[in-house]
Specification:
The complex is a heterodimer of chains A (456) and B (318). With 456 residues, chain A is α+β, with helices and mostly antiparallel strands. Chain A is built from 15 helices and 9 strands. In chain A, α7 runs antiparallel to α8 and α13 packs parallel to α14. The radius of gyration of chain A is 32 Å and the shape is elongated. With 318 residues, chain B is of the alpha/beta class. Chain B has a single domain, classed as Rossmann fold (3-Layer(aba) Sandwich), CATH 3.40.50.300. The radius of gyration of chain B is 20 Å and the shape is globular. In chain B, 46% of the residues are buried. Classes of the chains: A alpha+beta (456), B alpha/beta (318).
């Protein structure tokens, strides 16, 4: 028998005997690693900036599902195709032009979502860019002639209405009938002429002719054929990868939940013990304050405060703590403290002259702590959810990307209506996982420190 | 003879309660000399523990009256302010071993820290210094030194009792109040503890006030015996005389209720109930249960009568 058996080490060893606790601990360790990674790899300022700067993600597809979806479904969704390279100077009838030829294979089961041409020109004089598209079946489609000015040019090929009209006609001609589905530009370009909505698989070519006598160094082109899957987590309506918010949401959720739960329970414990120990007027005042707080509706008050002041998450944390320290828990803890107050060892401490503060902090609170610790851990998910709920209502931190904010964006953009399930499921899964892991550890700890619950 | 280390005169402690005023200690007086042991015996609720609480000034909130004279080592303490009592008397001059000592230890403090507490509080020592002295004290009460890092629940009842005793001795006080020091312990452990107390007394010249309802146990240690009944001391005498021949009828019946090993004695109990301390009987408080009751007992409270140095509060000797 040694006293380490009852210390932290012993508790952890005993905790590891419960499978649920091991699972919970593993998940929490992973979440902690993600948090550390988030804070180290994407510093706060950078995360906020990237999240708010929509230009940053221009080369990502919109509303793209995560890439691993292709392993689950038998329909292979396209990834984005990035085409770039130097142009060649070609002499044609005495006039020089710059030609860019890009070949790519397209073997996916779905159409791309968008095509954008990025043209960077150093030429002072503006010039025209002729664009054409060669399909595997030899069909050559003219994509239009665009004026290129000095600087950065962005041509949203798939948004040109006149091109869409002409392509619609072209498809009707090839099919010999009006198709029973609507034609968009990206569909028309990659459609197999079978009458069904099928992709023509094979090698395509895009040709860009810059009608200028500039050298190849002066004009850079990039063609992006946006797919429908992107990265590990997919993207939202502003092309932002969800992973930023998912990764940054982890330290936010954990620190918010753990800080709130720990501080609130400890403050409640201190208030309850002081109330019970001093009794009389102190008790009277503290208990009446508690009762007023208990009547105060927590969530509406919180919503009101965050609506009026648009507070940051750390101010929100303070408000949550301030609103909770006089919770109903104070009553139950006070009842426990009243009982402990009558224990002989407290009387003995009084006899040898321990001061009131010493009795409260060294004699009573440590004695009450063990049954309280599981409740700290069990209440962590409450506050993680609370933060998510407030963000979901659009009342969270205005800057930080968090899990709740993803859900808020998903709701606002009709993610479920559009079938973008990943957008809702990913943050939800992380929320549930966090809650699950803390609950598992809390329940196991409860069994350890509360012997009446222990299974033989 | 030198001045007594503790002198109590006319001590009164009344509590307020819903039913009325409880006269827990009513005009108690005695002297205690250096190195002497006074045993206070009596049945439950007779005011033994309340007397002890007066001495160490551990009074509940509902005190109605606390008066009289208590002189400890020449200092009058009843009129002392709480802060002065804390800094000059408590644990420096007088300390206490608690009733139900098994639960008198803070369950979340290690034994060593626990014993060091009074030193930190009263001698303003650093934790390390205090722990050094605590270790020595723990050894002195017969606990292996490596136990200092254990928690109270890892100790047996007897060991816990020793720790509590160590805690009361660690600041080297003059007087130690032992309030039921061995109740809830088995007889062998009781004997061990009593022997240890005897040895410590011989070594360090402590004065003990032993509060117990166990007359057999009190005979082990006592030099003087005070018998309490209904908040008053009804008999105060030297131990050898008391155990041989108690004078007060109550003390007699107490002795008659103690089993002896060799004699084939019929044990007698006392009929009736302990009197109410809210409304004590008129005259002698013992008269409703007294086998020798006379008319005067019902009318007038007996004075303290000195019978050859044997003080007894009974009309039989008046």
């Amino acid at each position: 028998m040694s006293s380490t058996e009852f210390g932290l080490k012993g508790t952890v060893r005993e905790l590891l005997r419960y499978k649920g606790a091991v699972l919970g601990l593993t998940i929490i360790i992973i979440l902690v690693f993600i948090s550390i990674y988030a804070v180290v790899a994407i510093p706060y300022d950078k995360a906020v900036e990237q999240w708010r700067e929509s230009e940053y993600w221009i080369k990502n597809p919109k509303n793209a599902a995560p890439e691993w979806i292709n392993y689950i479904s038998d329909k292979k969704l396209p990834k984005s195709i990035y085409l770039s390279g130097e142009g060649k100077v070609v002499k044609d009838e005495g006039r020089s032009k710059l030609v860019f030829e890009y070949n790519f294979g397209y073997y996916y089961d779905d159409f791309p979502s968008e095509i954008i041409l990025f043209v960077n020109s150093n030429v002072t004089k503006s010039f025209y860019l002729k664009t054409s598209f060669l399909r595997p079946d030899g069909d050559l489609i003219f994509l239009g002639k665009y004026k290129i000015k000095k600087g950065e040019n962005r041509i949203y090929v798939t948004n040109k209405l006149d091109l869409e009209a002409s392509l619609e006609k072209h498809v009707e001609e090839r099919l010999g009938a009006k198709p029973n589905f609507s034609i968009t530009i990206e569909k028309a370009l990659f459609l197999a002429y079978t009458g069904k909505q099928e992709v023509l698989k094979g090698d395509y070519e895009i040709k860009l002719e810059a009608l200028t006598n500039a050298t190849s160094k002066d004009v850079n082109c990039e063609v992006v054929i946006y797919g429908k899957v992107h990265g590990l987590t997919g993207t939202d309506h502003l092309r932002r990868p969800l992973s930023i918010a998912l990764i940054w949401g982890t330290p936010v959720a954990l620190s918010f939940g753990i800080t709130a739960a720990t501080l609130i329970v400890l403050m409640q414990l201190i208030i309850a013990t002081i109330s019970a120990w001093f009794g009389g007027r102190v008790d009277m005042v503290l208990q009446r304050v508690t009762e007023v707080y208990m009547v105060l509706p927590f969530l509406p008050t919180l919503i009101m405060i965050s609506l009026f002041y648009r507070i940051s998450i750390w101010t929100l944390l303070l408000v949550v703590i301030a609103l909770s320290i006089f919770g109903a828990n104070v009553k139950t803890m006070r009842a426990l403290a009243m009982q402990i107050k009558t224990y002989p060892y407290i009387e003995a401490a009084q006899a040898y002259g321990a001061s009131s503060l010493r009795i409260v902090f060294l004699y009573m609170i440590p004695k009450m702590l063990p049954p309280v610790i599981p409740s700290i851990i069990l209440s962590v998910p409450d506050f993680v959810f609370l933060e998510a709920v407030l963000s979901f209502f659009g009342l969270g931190d205005p800057l930080l990307p968090t899990w709740g904010k993803l859900l808020h964006d998903a709701l606002e953009n009709g993610a479920l209506y559009k079938g973008l399930y990943y957008w809702v499921l990913e943050p939800s899964a992380l929320l549930v996982l966090t809650a699950f892991s803390f609950a598992q550890i809390g329940l196991a700890l409860d069994k350890i420190v509360n012997p009446r619950l222990r299974e033989i | 003879m030198s001045l007594p280390i503790l002198s109590v005169r006319g001590l009164k402690l009344y509590y307020r309660s819903r039913k009325g005023i409880v006269r827990a200690v009513d005009d108690v007086g005695f002297d205690l000399n250096r190195g002497e042991t006074l045993a206070i015996v009596g049945e439950s609720g007779c005011g033994k523990s309340s007397t002890a609480r007066c001495l160490i000034r551990l009074l509940p909130r509902n005190v109605e009256k606390f008066s009289g004279n208590i002189t400890i080592d020449g200092i009058e303490v009843v009129s002392l302010r709480d802060e002065d009592f804390n800094s000059k008397i408590r644990w420096k001059k007088i300390s206490m071993v608690f009733q139900g000592a098994l639960n008198a230890l803070n369950p979340v403090l290690k034994v060593g820290d626990q014993v060091a507490e009074p030193l930190i509080l009263h001698k303003k020592m650093s934790k390390r210094e205090a722990l050094e002295i605590a270790k020595k004290m723990i050894k002195a009460v017969g606990i292996p030194e490596n136990f200092v890092n254990r928690y109270p629940f890892e100790l047996s009842g007897g060991m816990r009792q020793r720790v509590v005793i160590a805690m009361s001795l660690v600041t080297d006080p003059e007087i130690i109040i032992l309030d039921e020091p061995t109740s809830a312990l088995d007889v062998i452990t009781q004997a061990n503890i009593m022997n240890m107390l005897k040895r410590l007394k011989a070594e360090k010249k402590f004065s003990y006030i032993l509060i117990t309802h166990d007359i057999g146990l009190s005979s082990e240690l006592a030099d003087k015996v005070a018998t309490m009944y209904a908040g008053q001391i009804v008999e105060l005498s030297r131990a050898d005389e008391f155990y041989k021949e108690p004078l007060h009828p109550y003390a007699k019946s107490l002795m008659a209720s103690v089993p002896t090993l060799r004699e084939d004695k019929e044990l007698r109990s006392l009929p009736g109930e302990p009197p109410s301390l809210i409304d004590p009987p008129k005259g002698c408080r013992f008269h409703p249960r007294c086998p020798y009751v006379r008319d005067i007992c019902r009318e007038k409270e007996p004075p303290s009568i000195d019978v050859n140095g044997h003080i007894v509060k009974c009309w039989l000797y008046g």
